[in-house]
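Q: Convert this sequence to structure tokens.
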Amino acid sequence: MKKVLVLAAVSEAATGLALLVLPSLVGRLLLGAELTGVSIPVARVAGIALVALGVACFSSGEADRGLSGMLTYSLLATLYLVYLGLDGEWVGSLLWPAAAIHVALTFLLAIAWLKARQFKGMKVRSD
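A:
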């Protein structure tokens, strides 16, 4: 079962990376059509989600999986949304509020992830 999970996680993460780097090529290979216009940033956000899913599958504990996956997604989404805003081509009225929300979520998730790691380390040492 673990081998299947690893295979699925690697496959999805690789697809996510491909969507981030070459979204038009992935669209052509998977869907038979070029991705253009606003579908490019949407495909990249989907790629970020697939990378985060892959990260979640490689985390050790159940709580770690959710935190690791969501932290990865929120951090990468924050970076990409800020990039889109600074680039100026794809800026809707909710782009900057969404980026700000992701900054806050990333900060809160990072604190929770660090606390979980710290608690896990304390639990192991006390045994």
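The mean pLDDT is 86.
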